[in-house]
UniProtKB/TrEMBL annotation:
It comes from Thermoclostridium caenicola. This is GTPase Obg. Its cofactor is Mg(2+). Residues 1-158 form the Obg domain. It is found in: Cytoplasm.
Amino acid sequence: MFIDIAEVYLKAGDGGDGAVSFRREKYIPNGGPDGGDGGDGGDIIFKVDMGLRTLVDFRYKRKYIAPNGERGGSKNCSGHAGENLVVRVPLGTIVRDKETGRILADLSREGQEEVIVKGGKGGWGNQHFATPTRQAPNFARKGTPGEERTVILELKLLADVGLIGFPNVGKSTLLSVVSAARPKIANYHFTTLSPNLGVVSVAEGASFVMADIPGLIEGAHEGAGLGHQFLRHIERTRLLIHIVDISEADGRDAIQDVDVITRELEKYNPELAKRPQIIAANKVDALADTSRLERFKSEMERRGYPVFVISAATRKGVDELIRYAYERLKDLPEIVLFDPAHRETVAEEKKEEPPFTVTRENGVYVVDGPWIRKILGSVNLDDRESLQYFQRAMKNKGVIEALEKEGIQEGDTVRIGEIEFDYIP
């Protein structure tokens, strides 16, 4: 079963919490803080596996969660980091963020690995919060949560040359005679229901990869005839061989066929319509009236397309077509779908939040935001020194000043998270 698109949920491991601990040994009853740091959460890494050909495995497993980091221990012992989770994908897989549509990775090299979501950082143990005036901090920092996101996996075949054209024009036949690929071939529409790849050998040490893209029809860019599923496999190809049934069987018009396919390419992705094309006028052996061929060839050459008259069934003109395609490929650059230098993390992609906000709800002053939530998780509000640390941090960050600007008065209620207290300046 050829599956070339899948949706999966990814959750990296959370960082482990830092520990609150004090050195307690014989003859040292009042030792200092020795709480260890929490371990980092595990990343989720996608890795190319050359043994995979489709994304069928993701039809049955759609959720991947990496292990969390361990909590810190006493005696300055750090928690173990969560193990990275390696997810294997076929060569040619594009990883796209579902929410933003951005490409996160293009796995197009053998053995390539990419971190898709990063694990959270482990929290600090209380040893880090000791100062000359605060010698027994009874609080530690919590670990940060790991990144999470839903991604769309798209398999785009890695081929140098793509065979395009209407159904039943001879694409599969051509691939079968120039490579070792053995696609199904029959005289009816939509014989090929999945792309086929073949290595075309031109001479010793000279070859290229050719993809037989299933036949396109009008409306393919909108998904007609499984058009979307097929068109994505052309995006990597550097050169297109457009095969046309020049015998014009079933009352078809060869020039109109070229126009329809070209429009479908342009509507799906304008860059595809600009990709270099070679026209292969196929089934010349079944052509009774050569004037049709001359009219077609003249029009295509006027448009700037090189035209080769072939018969895939008898191999007439096929060798010349293949040699020309090979020479063209020498001058064509690789298709880059994604520049790793533009990669951003989940945190960077999200709109930057202010460190805190102060709002008023039913007479209560509510303080919220990423910074306030993070520091609140590091504080033991039942401990006097920890509470003092929290109050100083609030003042230094500007929370107290923001509350005063909002008009807070002594005795007013402040809510931070699930905690409420009276404001005392």
